[in-house]
């Protein structure tokens, strides 16, 4: 049996990847599509997300563990970050899409400011808790993440995460607590738009490994139709019986 990621799935095993009510941590969600041309994106829950949970999304760049505060975090114009809150338990495998035009999530409640993604290089970072302005730090890197837990990040439309010279508005260090080797911080290539097209059934570890492989993505300088994006995933608790997607 083969399962296509673009087919809507409701797995009998969905939800066994995590324990409802436990605090979300790195890798519990993952970015699965980004269109910088229209500022839309999608993410998938790799474990059950409890009702009432709030996730924050920012395109703020990072330098030496600190965030650029003026990039959709605390500036008076954008009033970021973009928030998502679930009114009900969200099963593992659910894909949630952000529609920039309507300013709505496909599932859940929106608040905060929509992201403005750059085709010259940007990132989408997901976290819980709070990144706060610390005026004791040197501007513009005053975003202090000590009260936040980073969950996932995707870098796009540039040469990748840059931990040496990164930290401009178009480049970024890997966010603190995430890892390129662990698949929690992925690079989606140098083109403007990308969506995951690889296997959609597996354990969270397997899925993160596939998502970290750029060959499992479709990329373009033209925005993809949302109908091409993955619709749902089948998140398994073990490596047994893993199926691969139709290419």
Task: Put the structure in a nutshell.
With 247 residues, the chain is mostly beta strands. The protein has 1 helix and 16 strands.
**What is the β-strand count?**
16
Helix content: under 10%
Biggest sheet, open or closed, and with what strands and sense? 6 strands, antiparallel
Query: Within the largest sheet, what's the order of strands?
Result: 8-7-2-1-13-15
What is the number of independent domains? 1
Percentage of residues in strands: 25-35%
The secondary-structure class comes to mainly beta
Unreliable residue runs? 7-21
The value of Rg in angstroms is 17 Å
The averaged pLDDT comes out at 89
- Count of individual helical segments: 1
**CA-based shape:** globular
Order of helices and strands: EEEEEEEEEEEEEEHEE
Task: Describe the 3D structure.
This protein has 247 residues and is mainly beta. Helix content is 3%, strand content 32%. The chain has one domain. The chain has one helix at residues 204-211, and strands at 29-35, 40-45, 54-58, 62-63, 66-67, 82-85, 95-99, 104-105, 109-112, 122-133, 143-156, 185-187, 193-196, 201-202, 217-220, 234-235. The strands form 4 sheets. The chain has a 6-stranded antiparallel sheet with strand order 8-7-2-1-13-15, with no helix packed on it. A 6-stranded mixed sheet has the order 9-6-3-10-11-12, with no helix packed on it. Strand 7 (95-99) and strand 8 (104-105) form a beta hairpin.
